[in-house]
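User: Second chain of the day. Same drill as before.
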Amino acid sequence: MRLLLAEDDPKLLKSLIHIFEANKFAVDGVMNGKDAFFYAQSGEYDGLVLDIMMPGLDGIEVLKRLRKEGVTAPALFLTARTEVSQRVEGLDAGADDYLPKPFSSSELLARVRAMLRRKDNYMHDLLTYNGMVLNRSTYELVYNGSTQPLNCKELQIAEMLLQQPNGIISIEQFMTHIWGWNADVDTSVVWVHISNLRKKIDTIKAPVEIRFVRGAGYKLEDKQ
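Assistant: Same format as last time:
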């Protein structure tokens, strides 16, 4: 397994590299956020271990940018910041785990091994159809460098459509999956969100469209 380790304390970085290498990991170590982002973009790593407080870019910003670029390697944050709000911020940025300093080497290794085991069942953040990408981590539609943010319901609708391109999804399926069986919501709400989603697809000029199939539902297909 190959890890990228980012830590701005040179003594701690050297110690951590020794710990991982002694436990059969291949490790690249960097001391700032800019280098962490550059190295991780390669996609060559099975996991990322990132300090939050780093010069240049902090660990949270590094991970946000990596997730936006489509890098899905699982990530563990190391930090002295133990407040709940910062833990939440790190996890919301796309991290898989969080280990406050100081920590024992045995706990660090156990956390990293658990993170890498989950990698086998990792749900990919990106769904793609005909060049259009849905980034489930950042709630964005992307095509050819153009980006449109989505709200929660638009994301869920887009997710269903991209998971079944060219397949018809009924209004009832949308309602059940997104709003639930007993939701007191008019079915017209589906049309409203799909209408907004169509506008956003048009804005990024993606070569796909959401077509209404009378009496059946909606389908995502190539633009005619």
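The chain has a mean pLDDT of 87.

User: Great, on to the next one.
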